[in-house]
């Protein structure tokens, strides 16, 4: 799993332009987190994809977009996965590596869950 982190201008249409690159390259986005960041008029996009080669290919195209200020692949030791699990016992939030979180989801088989990636 590869995690990409983008710093973009916080304006309408940016997400559509960014996701258009993934559509053109036929890359499935596994998780995505978007929000305003510490800089005014900027937003941060953190997303994950399965294929490292495709991630390397799309990152160059993302860097060429006018709305993208920075686009990088996050080193494996700088990201974590998290999930919110809903089961019979209640709600539980878990964090760890992508593999650890996925293993826990398989093991516990929650009724519902939300899984995402985060760069740290």
How would you portray this structure in words?
- This protein is α+β, with helices and mostly antiparallel strands and 120 residues long.
- The protein has 2 domains: 2-74, Alpha-Beta Plaits (2-Layer Sandwich); 78-119.
- Helix content is 28%, strand content 46%.
- The chain is built from 3 helices and 7 strands, in the order βαββαβββαβ.
- It has helices at residues 14-24, 52-63, 98-108, and strands at 2-9, 29-36, 42-49, 68-74, 79-87, 90-96, 112-119.
- The strands form 2 sheets. A 4-stranded antiparallel beta sheet has the order 2-3-1-4, with helices on one face. A 3-stranded antiparallel beta sheet has the order 6-5-7, with helices on one face.
- A hairpin with a 5-residue loop joins strand 2 and strand 3 (42-49).
- It is globular, with a radius of gyration of 15 Å.
- The mean pLDDT is 86.
Task: Quickly describe the structure.
This protein has 120 residues and is an alpha+beta fold. It contains three helices and seven strands, in the order E-H-E-E-H-E-E-E-H-E. The protein folds into two domains: 2-74, Alpha-Beta Plaits, CATH 3.30.70.260; 78-119.
The neighbouring-strand order within the major sheet is 2-3-1-4
Task: State the CATH architecture of the largest domain.
Answer: 2-Layer Sandwich
The CATH C-level name of the largest domain is Alpha Beta
Shape: globular
Uncertain ranges: none
The secondary-structure element order is EHEEHEEEHE
Structural class by helix and strand composition: alpha+beta
CATH topology assignment of the largest domain: Alpha-Beta Plaits
Question: CATH superfamily assignment of the largest domain?
Answer: ACT domain
Number of helices: 3
Note the main sheet.
4 strands, antiparallel
């Amino acid at each position: 799993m590869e995690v990409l982190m983008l710093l973009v201008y916080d304006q309408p249409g940016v997400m559509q332009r960014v996701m258009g690159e993934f559509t053109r390259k036929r890359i499935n986005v596994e998780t995505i987190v978007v929000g305003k960041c510490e800089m005014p008029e900027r937003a941060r996009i953190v997303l994950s994809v399965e294929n490292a080669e495709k991630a390397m290919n799309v990152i160059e195209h993302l860097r060429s977009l006018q709305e993208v200020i920075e686009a990088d692949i996050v080193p494996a030791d700088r990201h974590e996965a998290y999930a919110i699990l809903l089961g019979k016992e209640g709600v539980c939030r878990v964090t760890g590596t992508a593999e650890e979180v996925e293993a826990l989801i398989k093991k516990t088989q929650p009724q519902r869950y939300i899984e995402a990636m985060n760069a740290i």
